[in-house]
Request: fold
Amino acid sequence: MRINKYAAVGIAAGVAALVVVKQLIADAKPKPPPRGDHDGWHQIALASLDFETTGIDPLNDRVLSYALIADRGPDINGLINPGIPIPASSAEVHGITDVLLADAPAPAVGIAIVAEWVQSLIDRGIGLVVFNAAYDLSMLHAEATRWGVKQPDWDRLLVVDPYVIDWGIQRGTLGSRKLTDVAAYYSVSLDNAHDAAADARAARGVAYEIGFRHPHVAASSLQELMQRQRSWYADRVEDWNSYARTVGRSLDDPHGWPLASVLTSKPTD
Reply:
């Protein structure tokens, strides 16, 4: 097949135009602010936690695997046999099957390891990064209750939740903000999503990037950041509830961070 010189010029022009279009699309994508050299909580060592589970209900589903990424010392990764079948839809997401967990420790053993590790952070005043903490921490609380494991001292836990902080900064303007989305936005590597260790490390990486790139967030102490996150979470819930009311969807609880409020409400006489 022969291509005359005019056709070749047209092809070359088309390729060049395509390159320009692709570059314009790339340039148009939202980008975070540049890193700064300011002080803040992002300059201190943080720990991180993530679970893979049987489903999306933190009060009734079960933990299957956990990753405890330490601020110092070795990380801890483990599997848990939940004692119930793993739904096929969940196994398709994280690859954890009944066969894989057949010889894994019982929940009381694994949950005790996680709860004691969290308590050690509390005792040392170390911040714990958890992406969407209202889910993972509510699940830990529910599992500890279910298996008779001593609860961590939740009132003293310092949580850094990149999911909530990102919403506080962006106010929902950037569309989907799952961990994969936020990690990509901040150029944080996440090569094996839905693996507890990979997700926990990525969440911590995102938390650090948020601190480096947003001085007004990094300037808070971890104690102050807790209050700001509660406020941002409440704002996000109200944003959702405003929509939910118009379509007849169930409403979320604005007080459900970092634990579902049903777990922390005091019984009345």
The chain is about 50% helix and 10% strand.
